[in-house]
Fold this protein.
Amino acid sequence: MRINLLVKHFLLKNSVRFILVFILIICINCKVKADQTEVGNPIAPTGLTVENIRNTTNVKIVDLTPEFGWIIPSTTPFQKAYQIIVSSSKENSNITKVDVWDSGKVIGNESFNISFKGNALKEGQTYFWKVRIWDNADQESQYSEIQAFQTGSKINTITTANSFQMDSIKPIVFEEISKSSYFIDFGKAAFANILFHYNAKSNDTIIVRIGEQLDGNRINRNPQGTIRYQEIKIPVSPEKNTYILPIKPDKRNTKVGAIVLPDSFPVLMPFRYAEIENVKESIEKNAFTQLAFHSYWDDSESKFQSSDTILNQIWDLCKYSIKATTFAGVYVDGDRERIPYEADAYLNQLSHYTTDREYAMARQTIEYFMEHPTWPTEWQLHVALMFHADYMYTGNTELIERYYDDLKHKTLLELRREDGLISSSKATPEFMKKLGFKNPKDKLKDIVDWPPAQKDTGWKLATKEGERDGFVFTPINTVANCLYYRNLEIMIEFAQLLNKPKEVTFFKNLAQQVKTSINSKLLDAERGFYKDGEDTEHASLHSNMMALAFNIVPKENISSVAEFIKTRGMACSVYGSQYLLDALYNANESDYALRLLTSTENRSWYNMIRIGSTITLEAWDMKYKPNADWNHAWGATPANIIPRGLWGIQPKTPGFKIATIKPQLGNLAHSKIKVPTIHGSIIAEYERSNRSEMNYSIEIPGGMTAEFILPDTIREVYINNKSIQQQGSVFLLQSGKNTVKATF
């Protein structure tokens, strides 16, 4: 009524003036309604997934009763209910016509691992789904955007593989060497090929050289170890102007046992540089494109920046290393063999989870290992660690349910003696078969770290003891038994999950026995640290870092074990650095951990950058492993240690329902981080005003809470500008943005 009166009034006076004011009134009215919608109703869910696949284009879902997921907006701290609609066409989905499955309004705060409960879907069909949610005030959101997915044929494994991507990368340097030759730098090494355009006036041959390493200003044509280089001769003719390099396949990484790449891929080789010779016609920079292949990847899912420029470079190196080495679809050991190894894969998995919201590749690799084990004793003990990491980061139980009985063998509990400790020497051909080995002659062999001592390899190494810090092997190996204890802890959780009370009791009793035996027989009480085994007095970095990483060390010995570790420096390989840094952050030795992370010594990640690699190496340098490669993801430990250790962001409960955030930022003046989770990203910022005051900004995704842990020396805490009066140093943060000011 009031608007109508205004209309009449202005119509009588001035039609132009009326129009302007009328538009203004309508705009204000619309904004009020929009604001009411924003305040009164939850925003629609985003980030839809099917079987944890974000972009379902070019993906075949192999589970015909798939699981759905979505991200709850951070403006909706609590989801009270949800409704999923699955339709057979986009048209039906647009009008919410239910012809496949309607979940109805389901009371619950779950937002992932939601199983399809209609009649099983049909193979080779395309379906369309969407979801809406209700908040704690029972206000419903709009439906999400529609996601399409296609079903495939059922296979023996339960994991749907994600799609591959190809990046087209132009040169950052294109230099004319002579009238007929050019040098190209693509900026970073990648598992790639080259597409180029060339207009030949007559039949001729162009020579292309590609490689990972420079010798002066040109590609190293005789690189050490398995650093890659290849010379390729390409016939050119007037009838053709577009070429792909006919790279020669490597005999070793294409043999039986190596992972076979899709038929749609050209032959790939890791390289950064190219040289072109015998060029007769004019050619330009844009004629060359590096075709870099990798698994599905979203660079925006993770970020890190700090006041330490070296640490920032190391983060960039390690994050890119994880992306670049996903080219095979499962985690492999780089380019030398292209074979999955359990320990390599576990480190790769942790870093993949902290750099992208991607879980399919780890799950594929886990299933691969159930049929294709490798020989090191400790590598078998990494399989349960992979299962547990998948469970904690996704909350999904399907792999555990399917492989629980087989996984028990992977713990090696059948190799135990009366005091609970295990020895690989007890493995029989029958037991090896249970682990998945096909050849009755296969045997387990303790590895501890790699490479071994100079005397065991014949290699001339920078340090005669190799990467094992002089570790002395005995039948009862401290490193293997520490990993074994962690396996038993994991099996307690899995038995509880599957409601197996007798097995819960069994694993609890066995775990306690093993921990007691380790600390009574392998801990040197007088010296305060661990020996390498039962029949030696030698103590290595490895025995002590493993005990500390897996929380085996008695409280009264933590300090002495940590101090021993700090006397050894980086006396382990790039693989061992994972457990060294885990141990240090467990013991609150953050200053020393940061010194190792940012070290510029030869045994450092900065050394990899300094010598010219853009993907992490298999070893700290070629002098520590003469046959090493320059594209090994197990060298990328900082990609997970920076989020998990330095920032202390980890799942406290399965599926990140509750997160733990325990910053141990050392002497950094400021830092920012973005860590992907299945709920969405945790985004955090830190600034140290002075030695006694620290300020944090923490954004928690919808559907998640976080335990924020500060040092015990805390004096006063303000959360969202409110003083918090409580005992202890653990504070609860809710979904959305939180500010924390702490004084010491």
Remarks:
- Residues 425 and 475 are 7 Å apart (CA to CA).
